[in-house]
Amino acid sequence: MSELSAREFVADFFDSFTREVVAGGDAEAAVDRYYTPDVEQTADGVTLDRQRLVAHLRPIRKNLLTWEYDVHEAIRTADRLAARFTIHAQLRQGRTISTEVYLFGELAPDGRMRRTTQATRDVTAR
Questions:
Q1: DSSP 77
Q2: Residues 9, 2: contact at Cβ < 8 Å?
Q3: Which of 36, 38, 55, 113 is the most buried (most CB within 10 A)?
Q4: CB 123 within 8 A of CB 100
């Protein structure tokens, strides 16, 4: 079996994580499958540790209906990842939003995310 390309890795990682979160299973177990216990996810200057990441998933579960990750660019080494992608999300109240993400990450040897730094911008068509 061939290893996933960097773009495929990013798309698969975030899509499968989102699918598990929305399905309503144990949020902590899902986070533990995709992120290391010492995770630090910084997006637009706000840092989430594991506990805050789990709490962040609650509103996503309630509000997200459909999603798509459009990965524009990605580069991966054994323990580093850089990607630019757009998340298209349809929310329960009928809104559709699109967010462009610039992500720089550190991966654990088992492929789980250890640290990310992200900058985002709203690219929703108006």
A1: -
A2: no
A3: 113
A4: yes
The pTM of this model reads 0.91
Distance, in Å, from the CA atom of 36 to the CA atom of 86, rounded to the nearest integer, reads 24
The alpha carbon dihedral of 74, 101, 51, 13 has a sign of: negative
Q: Please, what is the Cα angle at 25 between 37 and 64, to 5 degrees?
A: 100
71 closest CA partner among 1, 5, 10, 4: 10
Cα 10 from Cα 70, distance rounded (Å): 10
The pLDDT tens digits of the residues spanning 14-59 come to 999 999 999 988 999 999 999 999 999 999 999 999 999 999 998 9
**Number of residues written out for the chain:** 126
Alpha-carbon gap, residue 126 to 124, rounded angstroms: 6
